[in-house]
């Protein structure tokens, strides 16, 4: 498939107002404000959660029982953790050994400054607290459980590094070092070090935005859609509707976007003036259709036009479920982030998409049209790019 764009990366911006000390933890520990340790000869940074009793007493990270488990696992793959760098999401020991959200927030500038200084190629993220500290900007939605994230190799534009989340070794101890979990843990670590010398390849959201043509006038959108009828190839398309299900006369398709072969992406408002040409596109067999959760587009097409979609070839949601059957990983937003490094791009539109019930009417028509169409267009473009990545995974 054509249309594979190389992305650009950006460096982490260090906050101007560090809050170190505001949490008060430094007053009650032996090794306050613990510095990053390790020689750093390898460009891998381990980010754990917080110092435990032994770490606090000895002034270094990952030296207690969980740390020893991590070290022995790394030795099995010929890695000495002291050749890497290591730190925590909270760098002072919490007296209760419990990490609170405000502690992560206060300590985050320390972590960001360390990353900016060390410039690691790989960041091994150990546990949920470390994940929460690092993901604050690129993933603004609910993180869910750590199990949703373990094992991915995420090309982060914010840190210009590969983020490799996995379980904290303390979890493995709680699970009595279950052999299957230990094998998975070792596999995650081995995978992370494979990326140590690989440059980060992520997509620039700004560059992708520049590829989306926005058409607010439905009549102009109809003319643009007619051009698709003369072409052939792989067409990712996406609806934005005023509800989840087309079950009442008030429900309608508000906008639609298209991405043809990864090169031609546009989004337009939909009304009676361009519905006919949209119907023709959906019945065009020489345009092979891609969607994320195709049953949504199929159901709305049948309800609005009285026919189905011809030429389905890919559903990124079904494909992601076949590749990995974990829950809460199949959305195009999640797949675009873990595979392409695309950060949050829907926070301004998401509130308008919510309704009181599955049959309710949302507020999408109150959203800014240009913002809505940009969001819609990015969905189609990313559906195409994710589908291309998934096809490679399926070989």
Question: Could you explain the architecture of this structure?
Answer:
The protein is α/β, with parallel strands linked by helices. It has two domains: about 25-195, Uracil-DNA glycosylase-like domain (Uracil-DNA Glycosylase, subunit E), CATH 3.40.470; about 205-395, Ribonuclease H-like superfamily/Ribonuclease H (Nucleotidyltransferase, domain 5, 2-Layer Sandwich), CATH 3.30.420.10. It has 14 helices and eleven strands. The protein has helices at about 55-60, 65-75, 100-120, 130-135, 170-175, 180-195, 205-210, 220-230, 275-285, 295-305, 315-325, 330-340, 350-355, 370-395, and strands spanning about 45-50, 85-90, 120-125, 155, 160-165, 210-215, 235-240, 255-260, 265-270, 285-290, 310-315. The strands form two sheets. Strands 6-9-8-7-10-11 form a six-stranded mixed beta sheet, sandwiched between helices. The protein has a five-stranded mixed beta sheet with strand order 2-1-3-5-4, sandwiched between helices.
| CATH top level class name of the largest domain | Alpha Beta
The CATH topology of the largest domain: Nucleotidyltransferase, domain 5
Question: What are the secondary-structure elements, in order, as H or E?
Answer: EHHEHEHEEHHHEHEEEHEHEHHHH
Report the strand count: 11
CATH evolutionary superfamily of the largest domain: Ribonuclease H-like superfamily/Ribonuclease H
Rounded average pLDDT: 93
């Amino acid at each position: 498939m054509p249309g594979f764009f190389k992305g650009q990366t950006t460096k982490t911006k260090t906050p101007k107002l560090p809050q170190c000390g505001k949490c008060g933890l430094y007053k009650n520990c032996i090794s306050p404000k613990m510095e990053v340790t390790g020689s750093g000869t390898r460009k891998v940074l381990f980010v754990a959660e917080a110092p435990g009793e032994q770490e606090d007493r000895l002034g270094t990270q990952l030296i207690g029982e969980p740390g020893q488990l991590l070290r022995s696992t790394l030795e099995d793959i010929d890695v000495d953790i002291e050749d890497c760098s290591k730190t925590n999401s909270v760098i002072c020991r919490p007296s209760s050994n419990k990490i609170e959200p405000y502690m992560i927030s206060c300590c985050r500038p320390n972590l960001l400054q360390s990353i900016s200084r060390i410039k690691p190629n790989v960041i091994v993220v150990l546990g949920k607290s470390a994940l929460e500290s690092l993901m604050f900007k690129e993933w603004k939605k609910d993180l869910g459980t750590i199990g949703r994230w373990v094992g991915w190799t995420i090309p982060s534009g914010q840190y210009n590094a590969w983020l490799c989340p996995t379980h904290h070794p303390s979890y493995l101890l709680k699970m009595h070092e279950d052999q299957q979990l230990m094998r998975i843990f070792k596999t995650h670590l081995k995978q992370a070090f494979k990326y140590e010398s690989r440059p980060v390849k992520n997509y620039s959201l700004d560059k992708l935005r520049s590829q989306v043509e926005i058409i607010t006038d439905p009549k102009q959108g109809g003319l643009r859609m007619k051009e698709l009828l003369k072409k052939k190839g792989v067409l990712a398309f996406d609806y934005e509707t005023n509800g989840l299900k087309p079950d009442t006369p008030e429900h309608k398709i508000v906008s639609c976007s298209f991405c043809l072969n990864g090169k031609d992406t546009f989004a337009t408002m939909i009304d009676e003036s361009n519905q006919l040409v949209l119907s023709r596109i959906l019945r065009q067999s020489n345009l092979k259709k891609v969607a994320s959760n195709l049953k949504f587009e199929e159901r709305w097409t049948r309800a609005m036009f009285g026919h189905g979609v011809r030429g389905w070839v890919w559903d990124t949601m079904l494909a992601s479920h076949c590749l990995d059957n974990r829950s809460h990983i199949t959305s195009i937003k999640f797949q675009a982030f873990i595979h392409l490094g695309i950060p949050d791009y829907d926070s301004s539109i998401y509130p308008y998409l919510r309704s009181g019930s599955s049959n309710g009417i949302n507020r999408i028509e109150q959203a800014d049209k240009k913002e809505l169409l940009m969001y819609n267009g990015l969905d189609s473009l990313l559906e195409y790019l994710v589908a291309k990545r998934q096809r490679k995974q399926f070989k």
